[in-house]
Design goal:
nine-stranded mixed sheet; 2 domains; alpha/beta
């Protein structure tokens, strides 16, 4: 039975965290995986660290982009080169619990839903838990994701033998959300695992982003990527603003 899992990880100047991320993959209870790292022209020693792992573990693969192209291009390169029945994503500063893969596969087998995602813990850069756990809904639809993207890139898990491969939209932000919406246009819902199975590291630069810029980009996403009309965009924007505030209030 083919249960190979393709793990897609873009890297860019990720030397500070990449070893912890790879180690969390190597510690998985499910060991039939390939980790596809796509480096987006790092200028630090990210590549050297990855090559040290590759020398000892043939399941780890590295692709290097010729030009700095952003996370959508990097992840799409990984999607293109994945060979697994399952596909999942892990950013270069995040961490999985040891049973993340095993639990995701078992949930797909138990529920018959081919797109699952997990809750996660939220930490600062040094893994201190600064927010409460983010507990995902048990079910999310296309409309739900437009209101608030509760599917984090570090826990999305897809059976692409059934759902097929799709590329992330080539946009500056929200590439992952764009991909989830592509799948949710074709399936009724994705299934949320409410027990935390990963650690999302919240870095200082992510906290300091201007909210006005994020709102402007979200509006553009609704109008230009999802092609929603003005009334639909206003409706979903109001939900997005409220739920975004609630997400980080504690």
């Amino acid at each position: 039975m083919n249960d190979l899992v393709s793990i897609i990880t873009p890297t860019f100047n990720s030397a500070k965290y990449i070893s912890e991320t790879i180690l969390s993959v190597q510690k998985q209870t499910h060991q039939n995986w390939e980790m596809i790292l796509i480096d987006d022209c790092s200028s630090d020693n990210t590549i050297d660290l990855i090559k040290d792992f590759i020398a000892k573990d043939h399941r780890i693969k590295l692709y290097q982009l010729d030009l700095n192209s952003g996370p959508a291009v990097a992840r799409n390169k990984g999607i293109e080169n994945g060979n697994g029945k399952y596909m999942t994503f892990l950013d270069a500063d995040d961490i999985w619990f040891e049973d993340f893969i095993e639990n995701s596969i078992k949930t797909i087998q138990k529920t018959g839903i081919h797109f699952v995602f997990s809750s996660y813990k939220r930490s600062d850069e040094t893994l201190n838990f600064i927010y409460s756990d983010f507990i995902v809904p048990q079910k999310v639809t296309y409309s739900d994701i437009l209101k608030s993207n509760s599917i984090s890139c570090l826990t999305a898990f897809l059976d692409i033998e059934i759902l097929d491969k799709k590329a992330m939209p080539l946009i500056r932000k929200r590439q992952d959300m764009g991909l989830w919406l592509k799948y949710l246009k074709e399936i009724p819902f994705a299934y949320g695992i409410q027990e935390p199975k990963a650690i999302y590291r919240i870095r200082k630069n992510s906290l300091s982003r201007k909210k006005s810029d994020l709102l402007k980009y979200q509006w553009q996403f609704f109008r230009e990527v999802e092609k929603l009309n003005v009334f639909q965009s206003v409706y979903y924007m109001l939900h997005w603003m409220y739920r975004g505030f609630m997400k980080y209030r504690n």
